[in-house]
Amino acid sequence: MLGWGFPPNVAGGLDTHVGALFNGLEETDIEIELLLPAEYAPEGRENIVGVPTGDGDIVTRIGRISKRFAERASEFDIVHTHDWFGYGPASRAKQQTDVTWVTTFHSLSSDRNIDPPQRELETERRVTDRSDHLLSVSHLLARNLKEEYGGESTVIHNGFSTPDTTGRDYKQELGIDGPMLLYVGRHTDQKGIAHLLYAIKKLRDPEVTLVIGGKGHLTDQLERFAELLGVEDQVIFAGYVPEEALGDYYASADVFVSPSLAEPFGITITEALEVGTQVVATECGVAEILPDDCLVEVEPDSDSIADGIEEALSRDGPPQYERRGWDEVVEETAEYYREIA
Q1: Which CATH topology does 13-159+326-340 take?
Q2: Are 309 and 280 in contact (CB under 8 A)?
Q3: What is the pLDDT of residue 59?
Q4: CATH architecture of 170-314
């Protein structure tokens, strides 16, 4: 298997998925090895191989993993990569061995970018065409994969991630007296944060405070936008939130908001639910495995988001749902391997 990050060094849901899946598969009868860039590989873990990737962009660095990946592939029946960046290593493995190539899509470039890079689009098309088998983490993503590239995929939903909590009250520490809203994630156009900021201006309760965790190339623009809207006193840009603090941030919030223009699954949504926080969310893959009224579902526009926030703040008690464990993901993936090997 090829990954990029590994808990606690994660940059998104893909890394969380790979970590949980690898850890679980190690407990089965399936022999598995995980290749990662050396800088993200945990030390002393059996069956995890860290490969030095040096400097450069992700394409250049992944290219340096290809040779080692192809060499190791000869010892296995299946190679499993994730998203577009597995194309080079898996293609080389296919050229040199008779392995079966599985790709899991966690998102598409069109989900991550307003104007997707042509290189990523073309690579996704090649991955779709050349992989022996495709997996998607939701039916929403599977439909998009079919529409954009003609790829037929099997759906194995992600599991629910339960963040650790210590009881630390960030609402109190940040000096928030009224309701606390939380967003955590990358600061990019596709995450819809501008709509969320505009929604704050439209709320009837002036005591509501929005805490924005994470960072990205839009952070400075979003700070200026909050000032232009006149809501800067109701918005706290908390910066990068370390993994060990995430659970307490979720638990401190009255409502977690996911305003994404595209959310193929939504692991942050599961993390907020797992600590009992109400969630307002635009269309997302995780909704497929939740009761209809679990999330407050909204459109990616400020009026709808504002209405959703007020609905969520009026609810009593934690959301009710049946959680999906990562053990189920491991079991389904292991069975899938056995079927195709």
Answers
A1: Rossmann fold (3.40.50)
A2: yes
A3: 85
A4: 3-Layer(aba) Sandwich (3.40)
Q: State residue 104's pLDDT score.
A: 98
pTM of this prediction exceeds 0.85: yes
Selection from 281, 270, 273, 276 nearest residue 309 by Cα = 281
Read off the tokens for 337. Answer: 């391997």
Determine the Cα angle at 201 with ends 185 and 276, to 5°.
45
Please give the structure tokens belonging to residue 166: 């210590």
**Chain centroid to CA 320:** 22
pLDDT in tens, 129-140: 999 999 999 999
State how far the alpha carbon of 89 is from the alpha carbons of 60, 80, 120, in Å.
Answer: 12, 10, 15
CB atoms within 10 A of CB 183: 25
Number of neighbouring beta carbons within 10 Å of residue 340? 12
- Residue 14: what pLDDT? 93
Tell me the C-alpha distance between 257 and 182, whole Å.
6
Domain boundaries, the chain: 13-159+326-340, 170-314
Report CA-CA distances (Å) from 42 to 22, 111, 340. 13, 29, 30
Same fold, 13-159+326-340 and 170-314: yes
Give the CA dihedral 107, 111, 112, 118, nearest 10 degrees. 100
| Cis peptide, bond prior to residue 8, ω within 30 of zero | yes
* Helices vs strands, H then E, count in the chain: 13, 12
Which stretches of the chain score pLDDT less than 70? none
- Please provide the size of the chain in residues: 341
Under 8 Å CB-to-CB from 189, ≥6 apart: which residues? 113, 114, 218, 261
